[in-house]
Specification:
The relative contact order is 0.27. Helix 3 packs across helix 4. Helix content is about 35%, strand content about 25%.
């Protein structure tokens, strides 16, 4: 058994094959007022916010950061399907979505949207990991697949970092 996992911490019994920073970022139209400047969590209250549902780790971390900052931000729309969140933001130029750059990297390369950091420290703590069960033997085919996956994620991650600069560190 193997999986891609977004994690805050290392799990027992898991062998981490690769790990990539996956901070919480905001995505919005390039013309959005927040698309070209730094902003704080409180600035999100002025715009329609779309969030994953409460089962997603990114949402749990976002809600935790809001509580830690004595804030309540009511989303305009929630979904457990990222494509629905992405579509909402593409069709509403005032909307802002919350995601990891890994969630949008296949969409953002040739799109009109912008990724920006949300300047709250805990939101930068997430990691995308390729995991497998500790001690479980790997076939040559599975090892090649892991290598392909690592290489593909590294290349796409690099493309987005070049395009969006220091927001994704």
């Amino acid at each position: 058994m193997w999986r891609l996992s977004l994690a805050w911490r290392r799990s027992r019994g898991i062998d981490v094959i690769a790990s990539f920073p996956a901070p919480v970022t905001a995505f919005m139209h390039r013309e959005h007022p927040l698309a070209t400047r730094d902003f704080a969590l409180s600035d999100l209250n002025a715009y329609p916010l779309v969030l994953p549902d409460q089962t997603a780790t990114i949402r749990q971390l976002f809600d935790l950061c809001c509580r830690m900052n004595s804030m309540f931000i009511e989303p305009m729309f929630t979904s457990n399907q990222f494509s629905a969140l992405f579509g909402y933001v593409r069709n509403d130029s005032d909307a802002i979505g919350i995601c990891s750059h890994f969630s949008v990297m296949g969409h953002m390369i040739n799109d009109e949207l912008q990724i920006r950091c949300v300047n709250v420290e805990p939101l930068g703590q997430r990691m995308l990991q390729i995991q497998t069960e500790l001690g479980r033997p790997r076939t040559a085919l599975l090892a090649r697949f892991f290598q392909f996956l690592k290489q593909t994620l590294t290349e796409m991650d690099s493309q987005l970092r070049q395009r969006y600069g220091s927001c994704i560190q």
